[in-house]
Amino acid sequence: ITIGDVAGKGMPAALLMARLYSSTRLQLLTSSTPAQAISRLNAEIASSGLGHRFITFLCMVLNPKTHELSVVNAGHLPPVLRSREGAISTFGREQASLPLGIVPDLSYQEAAIQVKAGDTIIAFTDGATEAMNADKKIFGRARLESLIAAENGDVEETLQKITTEVGEFIADDATRDDLCLIGIRRSE
Question: Is the pLDDT of residue 50 over 80?
C-alpha cells in the first residue's frame, strides 16, 4: 500500500509518478524487505537524471495472516492510527527519513505495528493538512486527526467525510493542491 507526492507540477511530475509506480512494484517483488525495496527505489530515482525532483513516499506492507503492518517512510506525512476506542496516534515517525531522490545511497528503516480489530489507518498527502482557505488559514493535522477520531463508521465514510470537510474548508479556491487518501480498517 503506497502513497506519494512528487515535488512539482505538470508533465515532468506526472512522468516521474508513472515511473515510480512501475519501479515500486519491481522493487517490492524483488527485495527481501520493504526497507530494502525502498532503499533500492531511492537509488534508482536519485540516479535517474530527472533534475532536482524528489518524492515524499510512504510504503506499507500488511501481512493479512499476522495483521502486522510494516511501514517505510521516505519524508512523507506519518499515517494516523485510530483505535477501536477512538484514540489517535501516529507511527513510523522515528524511522522516517528523507524523501526519495535526494541522497542516492540512503538506507531506509522500517517500523512495524500490530493492527488490532477495529483499528483504522489513514494515510494522506499534504493536500489534506495544508489545504488553505481564503483567510490563508490551513486545515491542519489537528483538525484532520479530530475528524478521524470522531468517525467510527465505515472507512469509506471516514474518507468521504475528510474529502467533504477539506472541500468545504477551502471553498472554491482554484489554487488547491491535490488530495489523496488511503484508508484501511481491520474488521475482525
Answer: no
